From TrEMBL:
It comes from the Bacteria. It comes from Rhizobium grahamii CCGE 502. InterPro entries: DUF1059. This is Small metal-binding protein.
Length: 61
């Protein structure tokens, strides 16, 4: 499972999302950026910033 925590990009925000693939995470994060942070224009470097912060979530064995 892949995990993105918005606080790594927007300090103080505790929103986070999990998905099986990065594309789904990016889609949800863009949606969150629009609705919660007023980012109406998602720049290319924003997507790169999101991807750079997606990490593997440790799964219990
Ligand atoms: Zn946020």
């Amino acid at each position: 499972m892949r995990l993105f925590e918005c606080g790594t990009l927007v300090p103080g925000c505790d929103w986070h999302t999990r998905a099986n693939d990065d594309a789904e995470i990016v889609r949800r994060v863009v949606e969150h950026m629009r609705s919660a942070h007023g980012e109406t224009v998602i720049r290319e470097n924003m997507v790169d910033n999101i991807k750079a912060r997606i990490r593997n979530e440790a799964t219990a064995a």
